Amino acid sequence: WIKNEGRNNFAAYDPTMEREYQDRRKLEHDLRLALQRSEFSLVYQPMLCARLDQFMGFEALLRWTSPVHGSVPPDIFIGIAESIGIMGPLGAWVLRTACTEAARWQNPLKIAVNVSPIQVQQGNLAETVAEILAATGLAPERLEIEVTESLLIRHPERALATLRAIKALGVRIAMDDFGTGYSSLATLRAFPFDKLKVDRSFVRDLCEGSESMAIINAILGLGRGLRLPVVVEGVETELQAAILRRCGADEMQGYLLGRPLPIDQFKTITVGRGATRGAAASRHHHA
Ligand code: C2E
Ligand code: MG
Ligand code: MG
Ligand code: MG
C-alpha cells in the first residue's frame, strides 16, 4: 500500500495538518458557544432606490467577534455553523434581532435578512418567521428574505413549499448573488421571486462596452420582462453608479452608498426625515 500512496502523505505526523485540524476544532467549539456568549452582532447596509436617490431599506449582515479568534468573516463561519448544526438557532437569532430593530424605526424602511439553505430545508422556517413577525409587530411587507439558488438544488420541493409559505405571510423573497450559480435561469422559472440581486462580481469591472456591461444589461432586461426589480450589489464608484442608473437598475447597494455599519450610525435614516443619500453620507465621514 506504500507504493500506491506514492507521496508519503499517509504519515500520521504532519504537524501543519495537525495544527489546522486543532484550529478548526477550536473554531467550531467557540462558534458553538458564541450565541450564548452574545458574541454575534448585526451590521446594516443601506439599499438605495436608483431613481429616487433615496434609501429604501437595509440588509442585515451577521458579524462574529470572538475574544479568541477576532472578527471572523461570515463567508467562513456561516459554512462552519451549517456543518456543526447551529445554523437553525443562529438564523432565527438573526431574524429576530433584525425584525426587532426594524420595528423600532420611525421610517417604514425594508429590512432584508439572509437565510441559509439549511434554514429553508429544516422545514419550520415559515413558522419561525410568522412567530417573529407577530412578536415584533413588524409589518410583513417590510421584511425581505434573501436566498441563494443553491437551496433549490438539494430538496427543491421542500424548499419551494417553505418559500411559498413565507410568501403567503406577505414577506418578499429575493434571489441573492444572481448570476453566480450554474442554474440561475431554471431557478428563476421554478420559483416566483420578488427581486433579483445581481452579484457584485459583475460590477467590479463595469465600464462601457465591457462584458460585464452586456451581462448587467441582459439581467436588467430579464427583470423588466419578468417585472422583477433588480438590485445591483457592490457599487463602489460614482462611475459604476452612473452607468447603472442609466441602464435602469432599480436599486443599488455598495460601499459608495454606505458600508455595513452598526445601526446607530444611521440614526438620521431610521428615526425620521433625512432618508436621503446626503444625510447618510455625511454621517459616514465621522464613523
Ligand atoms: P451577501 O448576502 O451577498 O452580502 C453582500 C456582501 O458583500 C457582504 O459581505 C457585504 O459586506 C459585501 N459588500 C457590500 N457592498 C460591497 C462593496 O461595495 N464592495 C465589496 N467588496 N463588498 C461589498 P459580508 O457581510 O462579509 O457577507 C458575506 C456573505 O455572508 C453574504 O453575502 C451572505 O451570503 C452571508 N451572510 C452574511 N450575513 C448572513 C446571515 O445573517 N445569514 C446567512 N445565512 N448568511 C449571511
Ligand atoms: Mg444578501
Ligand atoms: Mg449577494
Ligand atoms: Mg453572498
From TrEMBL:
GO terms for molecular function: catalytic activity. Transmembrane segments: none annotated. Residues 24-274 form the EAL domain. This is Diguanylate cyclase (GGDEF) domain-containing protein. It comes from Acidiphilium rubrum. The chain holds residues 347 to 633 of 633 of the full protein.
